[in-house]
Design brief:
The complex is a heterotrimer of chains A (271), B (262) and C (286). Chain A is α/β, with parallel strands linked by helices and 271 residues long. Helix content of chain A is 38%, strand content 23%. In chain C, helix 4 packs across helix 5. The chains are: A alpha/beta (271), B mainly alpha (262), C alpha/beta (286). Chains in contact: A-B, A-C, B-C. At the A-B interface, helix 2, strand 6 and helix 3 of A face helix 8 and helix 10 of B.
């Protein structure tokens, strides 16, 4: 599906002394089959934006369109099935006695029959590499295991777009890499992924397009190479290294991912 | 996202705000006792006037203060209604089938309603003019003598302080969990009371478990910083009893005395 | 050098000494720590790395007496944390991972004073020490702020100030930045970097780039002490890193792959310079 945000505005606590304009006219498209990165610092509005994608928050101005249709006119449960949202530190919402019960929550809310629910639970846990956790209590798991259980719970809805808000926060680097591999796998399987992150290096590795948010506005959007080489001082480490070498060695090109950057740098040394 | 401290405190500079919290707590306690000793409507009205003057001095906007009274309006209305409908004292003013309205009923209803309103107002004034932290400190000091009879005054105050510190945090957490479950299709608005109670399980369970986990981590952190109960502890915050405080206490007692006598 | 087993060694006493400690959490099949021995000299900056669940946090809690080892001995400044926790905690302070759950008081300055209150420090002295700690973490003006209004980085700085107010000689940092965003991490690392050199520091983290200034790095995996190396050797050992599921950050990883010294090149600028230098010398020689 094509998810579009048109000039979305959002204000927290309007009319009170604590009024904050979090989004000031954001226009953005999530294309089918892509991984879109949304980066920005604290206060940029990334999480607020993420919550508009499944209308957990409704815009004060502008609109959210799903395949051209105003999302507000859609049945809420339908929208939330098609656009899945995983919050930051999602494990705080685990509640059932076993992991499989917890993952089954969303499919059951959709009204699927038990056979289908069981199948979905199995599939989701497998996708997250968490099958052995099925019968365990979510409260007895390690941080990384809980994270996987929580994401499986949203994946079980089989969303067309999966929005992940800082999915690797607090994880060790190895588990982080596993999650990034999962994101790429999801894209292969036809799910669009919106990756909200403050970590430029991880965004560099898995995204097809990147959007930089600053103080509630879109500062730049495009391919990682386009966006990051535009302002190399606020770019992933790979881009920062290569942009410093561009003057002396223009043949280096515009690599962004680790692999391609390494190849480009090696090529330099071989000359 | 910003978050406010515990609802009712209205942060503004006023002589009432500046009073020692211990005095305010004591004054409120004396006030409440005094209210029940006053048996004439005139007495109550006098005290009510004094309280309104105090609210004005405390710089709390009338609108804000009246909002504090909103939760009790229902009870007040019920009390008045009860008195009006069932009292047979005094001259008959109205007759309507089985029900009779007597002047005594009206008077009594008014009296009781006024008392309830004054009770709530005094508590409301206390919390509106005293920061939650100051309240905890004041209580700790006032309860301290009870330590001699093994009452855990320090622990009670510490619990209050920690609760105050975490209320906004837990509020945000509840918000986040609710949204996360909504994102998984939970619907909190439909169904009868039993159905709705069940939909709260995916919010209450993780909130409670999370709260226990927080408590664990906090206890570890406190212990790691050398906490071992109230023994040998000094206090960073200071409560200083001043002339104005003694005056305030004296005035309160005086006003109540007059009220009783009236 | 023989270890006398009571926390001293011929060269002077150790700040922290663990002698063959083992610990298992109740109900767990595997030990969290197996037969670990380690010694930290006063003033040393020791990094502790390893995958999650490997024993790092358990070690921290054994050092400050929150946990008692099943076997073996721990000595902190010559004392046993299990039997004298209050004393030990005057000399060893811990900065925990979760910025939220370590702040106990409704206001910043009150929280910073918490440790001093516990020690029974007189009020006048507390005021000075709290003010000093606030300055040391750059939070002037934040004294009456409520913790729930602070960012993650600011919360950790408050926690750090609370430690600095008490001023223990030994600081244990238990993954202090892992729950923070990039800006928060930068903030906290800046102030951690400004800690006085004579402090003994144990820094537990899985962000290896934070340990570049360490004197040495301990690697804990699955309850075992797998390695004890200088950062240079640690970062250059690709096998060690892989076997223990450790991932170098981008710049040192590139350096390693390109045959350059990973521990010496921290920033993209340094790496770019080194690459240019190498290609220059390459073309000159060729």
């Amino acid at each position: 599906m094509k998810l579009e945000l048109k000039d979305v505005r959002y204000v927290y606590a309007p009319g009170t002394p604590f009024e904050v304009e979090a989004l000031r006219g954001v226009s953005l498209v999530v294309e089918p089959d892509e991984v879109l990165g949304i980066i920005g610092g604290t206060g940029s509005g990334k999480s607020t934006l993420a919550q508009h994608m499944n209308l957990l928050l409704t815009p004060a101005g502008g609109e959210v369109l799903v395949d051209g249709v105003d999302a507000i006119s859609l049945e809420k449960s339908e929208l939330r099935r098609r656009v899945g949202l995983v919050f930051q530190f999602p494990e705080s919402a685990l509640f059932a006695p076993t992991v499989e019960e917890d993952v089954a929550f969303a499919p059951r809310q959709l009204g699927l029959d038990e056979e289908e629910v069981k199948e979905r639970v199995r599939e989701s846990l497998r996708a997250l590499g968490a099958e052995e956790l099925a019968a365990r209590s979510p409260f007895a798991l390690s941080g990384g295991e809980k994270r996987r259980a929580a994401i499986a719970g949203v994946l079980a809805m089989k969303p067309e777009v999966l929005v992940l808000d800082e999915p690797t926060a607090g994880l060790d680097p190895a588990t982080r890499q596993d999650l990034l591999a999962l994101i790429l796998g999801l894209r292969e399987a036809g799910v669009s992924v919106v990756l909200v992150s403050h970590d430029l290096d991880e965004v560099a590795e898995v995204t097809d397009r990147v959007c930089i948010l600053e103080e509630g506005r879109v500062r730049a959007v495009g391919t990682p190479a386009e966006v990051f080489y535009q302002d190399p001082t606020q770019a992933p480490a790979t881009v920062r290294v290569t942009s410093l070498l561009k003057e002396a060695k223009p043949e280096i090109g515009d690599p962004v991912r680790f692999g391609e950057t390494l190849d480009a740098l090696r090529a330099l040394q071989e000359v | 996202m910003t978050s406010r401290s515990l609802g009712q405190f209205y942060p503004v500079a006023s002589p009432v705000h500046a009073l020692d919290p211990r005095v305010k707590i004591l004054a409120t306690a004396v006030f409440v006792v005094g209210l029940f000793l006053i048996d004439s409507t005139v007495g109550l009205l006098f005290v009510a006037a004094a309280l309104m003057a105090l609210v004005a001095v405390s710089r709390i906007p009338a609108g804000t203060f009246l909002r504090l009274l909103r939760p009790v309006l229902f009870i007040v209305a019920l009390t008045v209604l009860f008195q009006v409908l069932f009292s047979r004292e005094g001259a008959t003013l109205l007759e309507w089938g089985f029900f009779e309205v007597h002047s005594g009923g009206l008077r009594q209803g008014f009296f009781l309603a006024l008392r309830i309103l004054l009770l709530v107002s005094s508590a409301g004034l206390l919390t509106a003019t005293t920061a939650p932290v100051a309240l905890a400190d004041g209580l700790e000091d006032l309860l301290a003598p009870l330590k001699r009879v093994r009452f855990p005054a320090h622990e009670v105050a510490m619990m209050m302080t920690i609760a105050l510190r975490f209320i906004p945090t837990l509020g945000e957490e509840a918000d986040k969990i609710t949204k996360a479950q909504a994102a998984r299709g939970a619907d909190f608005s439909e169904g009868g009371p039993l159905r709705r109670a069940r939909t709260l399980v995916p919010v209450l369970v993780p909130l409670t478990v999370g709260a226990f986990r927080r408590a664990d981590e906090l206890a570890d952190a406190m212990e790691s910083r050398g906490y071992r109960g109230g023994e040998g502890r000094t206090r960073y915050r200071e409560l200083r009893f001043r002339k104005g405080d003694a005056l305030a206490l004296a005035v309160t007692v005086l006003v109540l005395l007059v009220g009783v006598l009236l | 050098m023989e270890n006398a087993g009571d926390g001293t060694h011929p060269g002077g006493s150790f700040a922290v000494s663990c002698e063959r400690i083992s610990f298992s959490y109740p109900g767990s099949e595997r030990p969290a720590l197996s037969d670990i021995s380690l010694h930290v000299r006063p003033g040393e900056y020791v990094g502790v790395a390893g995958p999650n669940g490997g024993g790092k946090s358990t070690l921290v809690r054994l050092l400050n007496g929150l946990l008692r080892p099943d076997s073996g001995g721990v000595r902190v400044s010559g004392r046993d944390p299990a039997t004298e926790p209050f004393e030990v905690r005057k000399h060893l302070g811990v900065l925990f991972q979760n910025p939220e759950n370590g702040l106990v008081a409704p206001f910043v300055e009150d929280d910073i004073a918490f440790g001093l209150e516990n020690l029974g420090v007189p009020r006048e002295e507390m005021r000075d020490r709290v003010a000093g700690a606030v300055r040391a973490v750059g939070l002037e003006g934040y004294e009456r702020r409520e913790p729930s209004t602070l960012s993650g980085g600011e919360k950790q700085r408050v926690a750090l100030a609370g430690l600095l107010a008490v001023d223990p000689e030994i600081l244990v940092l238990d993954e202090p930045t892992s729950m923070l965003d990039a800006a928060g991490r930068r903030e906290v690392l800046e102030y951690l970097g400004a800690l006085p050199a004579e402090k003994t520091i144990l820094h537990v983290t899985h962000h290896l780039e934070e340990l570049l200034d360490a004197d040495r790095i301990l690697l804990l995996n699955d309850g075992d002490l797998v390695a004890d190396e200088t950062p240079e050797r640690f970062f250059s050992d690709a096998d060690l890193l892989r076997e223990n599921r450790l991932v170098l950050p981008v710049v040192p990883r590139l350096a390693l792959e390109l045959g350059l010294a990973p521990a010496k090149l921290r920033t993209p600028e340094e790496l770019a310079e080194a690459i240019l230098a190498k290609t220059e010398s390459g073309t000159r020689a060729g």
